[in-house]
Design goal:
- The chain has 167 residues and is mainly beta.
- It has a single domain, classed as YVTN repeat-like/Quinoprotein amine dehydrogenase (Methylamine Dehydrogenase, Chain H, 7 Propeller), CATH 2.130.10.
- The protein is 0% helix and 51% strand.
- The protein has a four-stranded antiparallel sheet, with no helix packed on it.
- Strand 13 and strand 14 form a beta hairpin.
- The protein is globular and about 45 Å long.
Length: 167
């Protein structure tokens, strides 16, 4: 749902998912909204009309988060099916699948230059992937429980992770 900060009133409702909506983000120009859902899809919506623009379908389980690439030509999703996937915004087609986690993928982010994807998982790891090849570049191991999120430092020389293990 889209709400007015000033009045607190409902402005628009984006309806069409068949499961819990886990995340929602605006495009840079705020003309589109990207959502991730328990119905195994991510969806793109028009802010102006509230209508569905595109559906990204191909995950085998819940999609936990979805983010735009910097130029918004791609969408990156993270799923309970142990994968992160890269999609074309123009066509809605799957471009690449990042496979190698052994648990739910809770978050996925691009590096600044978008040559890498960083994922965080219920398998207690964060992983770095090549966008070009889809291959695993590095695995960050040492947590004792689920890794909920992973982010790059500003200069991208460090990765910060957050986990159920209290670290």
């Amino acid at each position: 749902k889209l709400w007015s900060v000033e009045t607190g009133n409902l402005v628009k409702s984006f309806e069409g998912h068949e499961g819990t909506v886990w995340s929602a983000v605006f495009s840079k120009d705020e003309t589109l909204v990207l959502t991730a859902s328990g119905d195994n899809t991510a969806k793109l919506w028009s802010v102006e009309t509230g209508n569905l623009v595109k559906s990204f379908e191909g995950h085998e389980s819940e999609v936990n988060t979805a983010v735009f690439s910097k130029d918004e030509t791609f969408v990156l999703t993270a799923s309970d099916d142990t994968t992160a996937k890269l999609w074309s915004v123009e066509t809605g087609n799957l471009v690449k699948s990042f496979e190698g986690h052994e648990g739910t993928v809770w978050s996925a982010v691009f590096s600044k230059d978008e040559t890498f994807v960083l994922t965080a998982s219920g398998d207690n790891t964060a992983k770095l992937w090549s966008v070009e090849t889809g291959n695993l570049v590095k695995s960050f191991e040492g947590h004792e429980r689920t890794v909920w999120s992973a982010v790059f430092s500003k200069d991208e020389t460090l990765v910060l992770t957050a986990s159920d293990d209290t670290t």
